[in-house]
Design a protein that fits this description.
The protein is α/β, with parallel strands linked by helices. The chain is built from 10 helices and 13 strands.
Length: 320
């Protein structure tokens, strides 16, 4: 087992590059702050330099895997657009990096590679069929069926956040109404909290924060756990929306496991209880108790090691 891969996790303000072995162990790691408003060529230059610092021309590195938010053509290595990088439109990511590094470079959406990370090295290691949901500023996902990551015709397989949950519901950033993301993402939950404060529905929530800028899902979840009715209702409604989404995916794909990660998932038991209640309410063709919902286990490492896993797969290196 002499081969290694380099995993790259490129976010809007942070770049992480690691040397990873086929067991998912990160042997070297370098992290760099980046400016999401910088021209793409600057960000790619920084990325290439950081990869070179981690790589050190090791002959046993098979290739580079990269996770990047947005919509891509993974075959040609082109980023059509990225919500984290406003100036990125039709950027040739892997052609540039491959040319500079003289290594094969492979790119996928960031949540898709995080799904590979959890599948090969994390909470989904023992199953063949799973769905991962990452709930944070937005809601993304990834789908693995019979051990294979689904990509889709427009590389949109896994855009779980844009399932319509409520017809004519709140407006989503994608332009649709009633998307899961518009109902249960971090900003959606915070928005519901702000409404509760403005309507005088939660004095505890009002007193907990100094300004609305401090309002987030964790604050709401903490007060819900302490019995605040308004916060409990907000969390229950977000959880039910997620439960409806999971119920639809459960009867469509019938996976063994749902993995829920992201910042909002870190609110813990109150949210997971609400998700399970929503699932129980909407699945009846088989026992809802047979659908396992677990938290992600790798945290911020999922994207990095998942990107490396994608490189291993593309290079034909077996992952135990």
């Amino acid at each position: 087992m002499s081969a290694y891969a380099i995993g790259v996790d490129l976010g809007g303000s942070h770049l992480a590059v690691g040397l990873v072995d086929p067991l998912g162990k990160t042997l070297e790691l370098k992290e760099v702050k980046i400016d999401n408003l910088a021209p793409p060529e600057i960000t790619l230059e920084i990325t290439a330099k950081t990869i070179q610092e981690v790589w050190k021309n090791r002959s046993e590195v098979c290739g580079v895997g990269m996770g990047l938010p947005g919509n891509h053509d993974h075959v040609r290595g082109i980023c059509h657009f990225s919500p984290n990088f406003p100036s990125w439109h039709e950027v040739e990511v892997t052609p540039y990096l491959s040319r500079v590094l003289k290594l094969p470079v492979y790119m996928l959406n960031d949540v898709r590679v995080a799904t590979l990370g959890e599948f090969h090295f994390g909470a989904g290691k023992k199953v063949k069929n799973l769905v991962m949901m990452a709930i944070g500023t937005g809601i993304g996902g990834g789908i693995i069926i019979n051990g294979q990551l689904l990509i889709g015709a427009q590389e949109a397989a896994g855009e779980i956040g844009h399932m319509t949950i409520i017809t004519n519901g709140p407006l989503c950033n994608c332009g649709n109404r009633g998307c899961l993301e518009a109902l249960a993402s971090g900003p959606a939950i915070s928005s519901r909290g702000a409404e509760a404060i403005l309507r005088g529905q939660s004095a505890k929530l009002r007193d907990k924060i100094k300004s609305l800028d401090e309002l987030n899902a964790k604050v709401i979840a903490d007060l819900a756990a302490l019995g605040d009715d308004a916060c409990k209702r907000i969390l229950e409604e977000a959880g039910e929306a997620i439960g409806i989404g999971i119920a639809s995916l459960a009867v469509t794909l019938n996976p063994e496991l749902f993995i829920v990660g992201g910042g909002v998932a870190q609110t813990g038991k109150p949210l997971f209880a609400a998700i399970q209640a929503g699932l129980n309410k909407h699945v009846h063709i088989f026992p809802s108790s047979s659908v396992s919902i677990v938290p992600a286990s790798l945290g911020v490492r999922a994207g990095l090691v998942g990107a490396a896993a994608y490189a291993f797969i593309q290079c034909g290196v077996a992952i135990p």
